[in-house]
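Hi V.,

You were right to ask for the full record rather than a summary. Here it is.
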Amino acid sequence: MENCDRIKLEVSLLKKKKKRRIKFVIFLIILLALLCSAYYYFIYLGNDIPLVEKEKELSVYDVNSNKRPIAVMIDNNVDNDEQVGLQDAYLTYEIIVEGGLTRMMAIYKDVDTSVIGPVRSSRHYFLDYALENDAIYAHYGWSTYAENDIKALSVDNINGLYDDAFYRDSSIAAPHNVFTSIDNLYLKAEELGYDTTSSDYENLNYVSKKVDLEKTDNSLNCDGENCSLEGRSLTSIDIPYSNSEVRSYTYDSDNGYYLRYMNGIPHTDRDSGEQYHYKNIIIMKVDNSTLDDYGRQDLDTVGTGVGYYITNGYMMPITWEKDSRSGKTYYSYSNGDEIKVSDGNTFIQVMPSSRDVVVN
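Predicted structure:
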């Protein structure tokens, strides 16, 4: 009888061990499936999978995409109809360079623009705005100052002097004939080992609803007749960089955006023929000085200054503040509240503080 009981006990233990083994194998299978899924979504698909789903939706870029922006230096020493691909940029900067001329930097995200250019060389103060947008910085050549700063600041950059992400159009005279594409730049960025995803690219406080500066004026720090902010309607504005270079915008109320002009001539895309237009304009007045006999410029990008925010037919005086070269510029009304930016592409005109805008 004791032998029978012992045999029954051993059989029972064997069955329990078998069940535990089966459960352990099932657990391993589930764990392996989860790991494979995670690898597929976050490694294989990579940039196309959002890390955190956000409630806000914008048309200016996909807030649920972690694709890293790319900033491209744009030649502005060409005619008004020789640039291409700029309308796709969600954010564009224009800043003075030597000789009273200007250069632009167009920033792209969540687009596949096939032709961008002409691409031109770097100037060191553009790095400050590429860094605050966590953008990969693309350019063709550099000044000595820019070369030194790119290395010192460890800027992820793609330089056409050494990298094959760019090409020359032989039908156009050099040096105004260098072009690239978004696909070329991302492929080269991956080849160079740069991160092509970002969680820190957001620099402007975009909102999905319409920003009404006329109402904003009535809601901020107004005490009777003494109002710290005074918004005004805007039909057109001239932004002078030098005696030879003036940028202008006129408001198209039917479409709710601003048409752009360079020296009084419509600024149009080479391939589409469409006049460039922007939902928002931010004007920053920044001190500049001459560095060398060639006339290269330096800008006081770190610190504070004044400017204007323009959207939906109105403009408002603002203040800008930047605490370091890589720090994000904070744009605020006089009461300190951060400006809310209308959903749409934005042009930031970084103009010399010694010049004054002309509003019509």
